[in-house]
Amino acid sequence: MKTILLWLQRIADGVAVVMLAAMFLIFCAQIFARYVLNEPIGWSAEILLTLWLWVIFWAGAFCLRHKDHIRFDLLFLSVPGKVQRIFLILSALGIIIGFGMSFLPTWDYITFYKIKKSAILKWRLDYVFSIYGVFLGAIILRYGLALIQYLDPNYKVQDDKDEQVEE
Q1: Of the candidates 150, 142, 147, 141, which has an alpha carbon nearest to the alpha carbon of residue 84?
Q2: Cross-strand partners of 124
Q3: Helices 81-112, 125-151: inter-axial angle, 10-degree rounding
Q4: Residue 69 scores a pLDDT above 50
Q5: Is 64 left (phi over 0), alpha (psi -120 to 50) or beta?
Q6: How many domains does the chain fold into?
Q7: What is the pTM of this model?
Q8: Which of 156, 141, 163, 162 is nearest to 84 (CA)?
Q9: Are residue 54 and residue 108 in the same domain, yes or no?
Q10: pLDDT digits (tens, 9 = 90+) for 76-126
Q11: Is residue 31 located within the same domain as residue 110?
């Protein structure tokens, strides 16, 4: 199972890398066309904005690990492990409930955008913004799995201090 998850992680990272590389190449083409050829290309800005949107939510859903996210954990680190576990359970529940409550209205709004198209390339905007629904679903699933782990009586809160980069 770990091998499958590792491969899925690598594929997700690869997709993000391809999107970032495409952004870089399109950006370079845009600069070249505008300042060397004196012929700006209008579609490049639209693709760059769409790719940026997709990279952010794709990476947030599939590439970032829990420890990679910004945390304000001063209070969390100052309490004993059993209280930390309660904090983890409550935060996972909060994220699941909050994102879960927003999922259907968000998906409804995204699907509403099927009637609109992007200005230059005429892409349906429900396709463009569908990545946010994928992001919501992935986060709900990830925190659901984390909640199951936190509720296990044998779960021990892990210390990330060893994994931090020393300066």
Answers
A1: 150
A2: 117
A3: 160
A4: yes
A5: beta
A6: 2
A7: 0.84
A8: 156
A9: no
A10: 888 888 899 999 999 999 999 999 999 999 999 999 999 999 999 999 999
A11: no
